[in-house]
Automatic annotation (TrEMBL):
Its cofactor is Mn(2+). Residues 604-724 form the ATP-dependent DNA ligase family profile domain. It comes from the Bacteria. Keywords: ATP-binding, DNA damage, DNA recombination, DNA repair, DNA-binding, DNA-directed DNA polymerase, Exonuclease, Hydrolase, Ligase, Manganese, Metal-binding, Multifunctional enzyme, Nuclease, Nucleotide-binding, Nucleotidyltransferase, Transferase. Residues 482-494 have a biased composition (Pro residues). It comes from Microbacterium pumilum. This is DNA ligase (ATP). Residues 467-506 are annotated as: Disordered.
Length: 817
């Protein structure tokens, strides 16, 4: 499913999680989706501890603090140290994250009374909570009475408490705090408050932790204010017999003698009717936004009277006009380093980026953008000189400004069409901002000129950005700190994990067609070669095999010349292919290149069997990681990279019809196609169902486990190879292959297999007849065969040798379906 621009895999939606009511996981996900608007303000910025019931509330549950390893990488998380090491807690700030947590049966969400501060540390609590827990013989009516007594005392302290029925037993009272005291100090206040109420009403209230003193009384649990403790989040479900909710209530409701806990369907109805009774406690509660609003960072860096810039009196943004298109401004800023400030109106402020090279003039370029602090709307008309001693010191002029039409605004991607002043340098242009690393201020983005406008028509190139004469005058002596780092000119160090390719999942034409109907159709040809990751430094290309081995020296026609991939460093993904006389990929021809290691042999074979690099993806560009971007956006970046490449670099077309692509592949004798989700990120080193490969020829990677000696014309040589495919019990025997060998192939196989000879049988399930004269070898080499079909017991029929796969390791081999 697509939720809030994210693609989520949802499973077992009919699984009953609440047997008493028959409530399913699908209904739980629906609840959290619909309640998100009022739930998120109460949990945003807080670490979430979860209670999970994977098999339903009639089965055991467990607490989950650390985010699961399989959680989507877009789920935000923050580490908290523990005695056993740091744990990454999820942060809930959007609907997709809520849906993911519901998918893994996180029924209960618990949060502390504090939020992370800007440095990622535990902040001071911004609310106080009293947990009114009824002991045996008491219930909600008694809790409501204690709540009213507590309210009087809290109001006398200048705090306005708000109640909720916990969905389990009792009532919680919350009051907003100014976040000026520590958790220990607030815990002490809560404890004294509980003791005070107990002193006035000893017949009904207890503040001691001992359970023995609770029968017939309401325990005021003050300890929930401890910085290490959590409380059920408002609007969270409870893991009880019924799908009750920690439901915010009005004080009038607490006077009802029939007060009871509410179920999730009732809570949805009341929120639709009356909104959130706890709204005043949310993220912008208690007037805190006046000090901690969107312009707080901007104000903290400037002093009115010392800079000509507008400095508002509080951190609140301005009201946005609902009947006008939002504004943008691009300012040329001559600080210690020239850059352009790119600002878009959003929610009453100017969301801002520093762009060292300005708006790219062509879709073939992508310029680095670094997010800065939000600016006030008054900054949209600001021009002037900021004193050198002040933050951002230098001359600011407006390069262009105007209005924009928003197409998409997500936390990692923005697409809009901007229209500047008549006759101005920008004109009308469709741009994309794509986040590549970090979040918030100082996060890095790519500013990209889209290849087409919003209607799909090609966009013309714009002007090359240059500094204006007027702005450059007198700015050379500015010494303020740079507003943004320069674009990197060399790639970041490449680690093995950075070049692990994403792997496609085997599929059938029918499954691929169904997937293409769910996705926007995107079909690529499957080229019969070997996978390679290219690392380009602006002048030369390095090549890594799928295994991570460096194969640069094997393909000098790609690596010893400038292949024209542009001035920016990048990491690209593709297939090394050798073509036959008809221009078709030939894995057999490629064998004569991929197994060579000696420089002289490579030099002799290169002109006889040249190779091409067929590109289909990009992992990084200009020093920024773009793997998290959707495939369609990575393709646009790749088109720019390959626009002026040499003929040995090929960027094949993309089809929009599975059947047409399959028909073309059959016509030209190609291996098959790969159907991809154009919205999917690049998942390094993972086999993903976002890429589905459909083979027209049946091929299978195999592990060589033995040699059978040749007879007749092959006496003294290899007669056949015994093959296996790794399974749960070991190397499962998969039959033998004895055809498809040339004399040179047999000689090469003999040379590499003889050193691997062993006395140990590596196979599981090999028949005695096949094992009778086998010469066992250590199962370390991978090969590939063509075959007609698998027999019911997993044996390859009519197999034919295609070649060794030195780019693969045995643990990567899986049975194709």
């Amino acid at each position: 499913m697509r939720v809030g621009g994210r693609r989520l895999r949802l499973t077992n939606l009919d699984k009953v999680l609440y047997p008493e009511t028959g409530t399913t996981k699908g209904e739980v996900i629906d609840y959290y989706t619909r309640i998100a608007d009022v739930l998120i303000p109460h949990v945003v910025g807080r670490p979430v501890t979860r209670l999970r019931w994977p098999e339903g509330v009639d089965h055991p549950s467990f607490f989950a603090k650390d985010l699961e390893r399989g959680a989507p990488d877009w789920v935000k998380r923050m580490p908290i140290p523990h005695s056993t090491g740091a744990k990454d807690y999820p942060l809930v700030g959007d609907v997709p994250t809520l849906v993911y947590l519901a998918q893994v049966a996180s029924l209960e969400l618990h949060v502390p009374q504090w939020r992370f501060d800007r440095d990622g540390d535990r902040g001071k609590p911004d609310r106080i909570v009293l947990d009114l827990d009824p002991g045996p013989g008491t219930g909600l009516a008694e809790c409501a009475e204690v709540a009213r007594w507590s309210r009087e005392i809290l109001q006398g302290m200048g705090l306005e408490p708000l109640p909720l029925t916990s969905g389990s037993k009792g009532i919680h009272l919350y009051a907003a705090l100014p976040a000026t005291q520590t958790s220990e100090e607030i815990t002490a206040v809560a404890r004294e408050l509980a003791r005070s109420i107990e002193a006035d009403h000893p017949d009904l209230v207890v503040s001691a932790m001992a359970k023995a003193s609770r029968p017939g009384k309401v325990f005021i649990d003050w300890s929930q204010n401890n910085g290490a403790k959590t409380t059920i989040a408002p609007y969270s479900l409870r893991g009880r017999d019924h799908p009750n909710v920690a439901a915010p209530r009005t004080w009038g409701e607490l006077d009802d003698h029939d007060l009871r806990h509410l179920m999730f369907d009732e809570v949805l109805e009341r929120v639709e009717a009356i909104g959130d009774p706890l709204a005043a406690l949310g993220f912008h509660a208690g007037g805190r936004e006046a000090e901690d609003g969107p312009l707080a960072v901007y104000i903290s860096k400037r002093s009115a009277g010392r800079t000509p810039e507008p400095v508002p009196s509080n951190a609140l943004g301005a009201a946005s006009a609902v009947d006008e298109l939002p504004r943008f401004v691009i300012q040329e800023h001559h600080a210690s380093r020239l850059h352009w400030d790119f600002r878009l109106e959003r929610d009453g402020v100017l969301v801002s980026w520093a762009v060292p090279r300005g708006v790219p003039h062509s879709y073939k370029r992508n310029n680095l953008a670094v997010m800065t602090e939000d600016h006030p709307m008054d900054y949209a008309t600001f021009e002037g000189t900021i004193p050198a001693a002040e933050y951002g010191g230098g001359t600011v002029t407006i390069w262009d400004d105007g209005r924009y039409e928003l197409e998409k605004w997500r936390d990692d991607e923005i697409i809009a069409t901007l229209e500047g002043r008549p006759g101005g340098p920008l004109g009308r242009v469709r741009l994309a901002l794509i986040r590549t690393d970090g979040s918030g201020e100082k996060s890095t983005w790519l500013l990209h000129r889209m290849k087409t406008d919003a209607a799909g028509r090609p966009q013309p190139d714009g002007i090359v950005v240059e500094a204006s004469d007027s702005a450059s005058a007198g700015s050379a002596d500015q010494t303020s700190p740079p507003a943004a780092p320069a674009t990197p000119t060399v790639p970041a160090p490449i680690h093995p994990a950075d070049v692990s390719p994403m792997i496609a999942t085997s599929s059938t034409p029918g499954i691929a067609r169904d997937a293409a109907r769910r996705w926007d159709p995107w079909v690529e040809v499957k080229w019969d070669g070997i996978r390679a990751i290219g690392i380009w430094d602006g002048r030369r290309l390095q090549l890594r095999a799928r295994s991570g081995n460096d194969v640069t020296a094997k393909y000098p026609e790609l690596t010893r010349v400038d292949v024209g991939l542009g001035p920016e460093p990048c990491v690209i993904d593709g297939e090394i292919v050798a073509l036959d006389a008809k221009g078709r990929p030939s894995f057999t021809r490629l064998q004569s290149r991929m197994n060579l290691a000696k420089p002289r042999e490579i030099a002799l074979e290169t002109p006889r069997t040249p190779v091409h690099l067929f590109l289909f993806d990009v992992l990084s560009f200009a020093g920024a990681d773009v793997a998290r971007l959707p495939l369609r956006e990575r393709r646009e970046i790749l088109e720019g990279i390959a626009a002026e490449a040499v003929p040995a670099i090929v960027l094949p077309p993309v089809f929009d019809d599975v059947d047409a692509a399959l028909a073309a592949a059959r016509t030209f004798g190609l291996e098959g196609v790969v159907v991809k989700d154009p919205a999917s990120p690049y998942r390094r080193g993972l086999r993903s169902e976002s890429w589905l490969k459909v083979k027209l020829t049946h091929t299978q990677e195999v592990v060589i486990g033995a040699i059978r000696p040749g007879r007749g014309g092959r006496t003294g040589s290899i007669g056949s190879l015994l093959l296996g495919i790794p399974g749960p019990d070991g190397l499962q025997y998969a039959g033998r292959v004895g055809s498809g060998f040339s004399d040179s192939t047999l000689a090469r196989l003999d040379a590499v297999l003889t050193p691997l000879r062993t006395h140990e049988n590596p196979f599981v399930g090999i028949p005695a007849a096949d094992a009778s004269d086998a010469l066992w070898v250590r199962p370390e080499l991978v090969g590939e065969v063509e075959f007609a079909e698998f027999t019911p017991d997993g044996i390859l029929r009519h197999s034919r040798w295609r070649g060794l796969r030195p780019d693969k390791s045995p643990d990567e081999v899986v049975r194709e379906h």
